[in-house]
Sequence to fold (298 residues):
Amino acid sequence: MISLEQNTNPDPSDFPSEIEGLRMTKQRREVLAVLLAERDHPTANDVFLRSQQRMATISLATVYNCLEALVSHNLVRQVNFERESSRYCPNLADHCHFQDEESGKIHDVVFKDGVKLEDILVLPQGTDINHLEISLKGHFGQSKNHKTP
Amino acid sequence: MISLEQNTNPDPSDFPSEIEGLRMTKQRREVLAVLLAERDHPTANDVFLRSQQRMATISLATVYNCLEALVSHNLVRQVNFERESSRYCPNLADHCHFQDEESGKIHDVVFKDGVKLEDILVLPQGTDINHLEISLKGHFGQSKNHKTP
DNA sequence: ATTACGAATTAGAATAATTCTAAATTTTGA
DNA sequence: TCAAAATTTAGAATTATTCTAATTCGTAAT
Ligand SMILES: [Mn+2]
Ligand SMILES: [Mn+2]
Ligand SMILES: [Zn+2]
Ligand SMILES: [Zn+2]
Fold:
């Protein structure tokens, strides 16, 4: 098992030829590297544009294919805000997403220590959760004072 | 302020001519009535088909317009699961949504008493949340025993 | 090396939910 | 009653994503 949590300028060729049962092709490496390179939450098209810089021949269809492969093998998360186009996140830690309505930018938000779903929701007994998505929208904090003088 | 929380076979003509600053036209009444009639989470097209039964001339564009008007005036909530088509929910109480992967059906899920967002998430100081959407997916509970003998 | 085969990539077409446009209708209220 | 504004409507447009079918690639056997 490889640590994919680093943030330091990943080189696609550092990835082994198979991760979590997924063959790492040149294109999949590139897409994964693009996602690990910046901790933002790019759309498929963003990923396509960034991938093209280093791999001029990659196609948008391939980017979609790669993202779907990476997501289904849990190497990357798909993030949705309402009906906007999907975004992709390489942060595998337990977290959710906040979108600043000013900038449209998405920020990772973590749970406080020890918070578990069953602690906060009333779920029918035996319910088995496969997927959880928490999406917040609003305005980003002005550190301390809120009013404009 | 009108109680829209009842569940008893609503008659569109019972609604006043304006709610929350929104003029209640014949079509908007009908769409709202459709949503209040069943506590499921229909798509725009579902709403269209149901509305057509009582109002043969209503158009899909109008259903979209009405839903958007009702949502923006907080008479109805829009519910999204990943990239599926939007669904609409007349339950204005604080709740989130669980989709049973077997049936595709969506169920309302409420929070345990007194649970507040700030209690469970680490948010930058001053962050102001306008919208919150929690979507769960998984398998519905087998009442008591989980194992099959 | 050559070949064969399955997997992956690709360009472009297709899909489908939603939004837009512009004309017709309805409602409002002077 | 009449003009202005709002709403509805049919159909076209949009656009993110998926699909199709052809090509290329990677691997392993010969
Ligand atoms: Mn899954
Ligand atoms: Mn809002
Ligand atoms: Zn994230
Ligand atoms: Zn609901």
User: Anything to note?
Assistant: Residues 23, 25, 27-28, 57-62, 65-66, 69, 83 of chain A lie near DNA strand C (CB under 10 Å from a C1').
